[in-house]
Request: fold
Amino acid sequence: MWQSPPDPEPKRTVRRIAQVVKLKPEFVDKYKEVHAAVWPDVLRQIKDCNIQDYSIYHDLSTGILFATFKYVGHDYVGDMERMRGNPKVREWWAMTDGFQESMVPGAESSQSNNPAWWKELEEVFYLE
Reply:
C-alpha cells in the first residue's frame, strides 16, 4: 500500500497565549508613545519567532496591561530563547520593564524569564 512521504516540516500548532503585567501610572503616556512606534528589529523578531495576532490592552483604572497573541510555531521554548538572544529585543525589554511592575513573585526582568516577567493566564473559555 502506498504511503505519502513524511512531511519535511514539523506540524505547526496554534497556541493562544494571554498575559498580564502592571503598568506604573507615571509611565502610561511613555508606554503608549513607545508602542506607537515599536522598533522594526523588535517587530521582525516577534514575527520570526512565530507570534501572530499580538495585542496589548490597558485598563487605566487598575493599571493592568493585558496581552494576547497566537503562537503558530512548533518549538515555543526555542523561539522564546531566540527572541531573548536578540540584543535589540533585550534593549527594548530593558526599557519597557522599567515602565512595568511584574505580578509574578520573584520576577526580575523580561530578560531573565525565570520566573517569567509577564504572568501567563489560564484560558477558561474559547469560542471560535
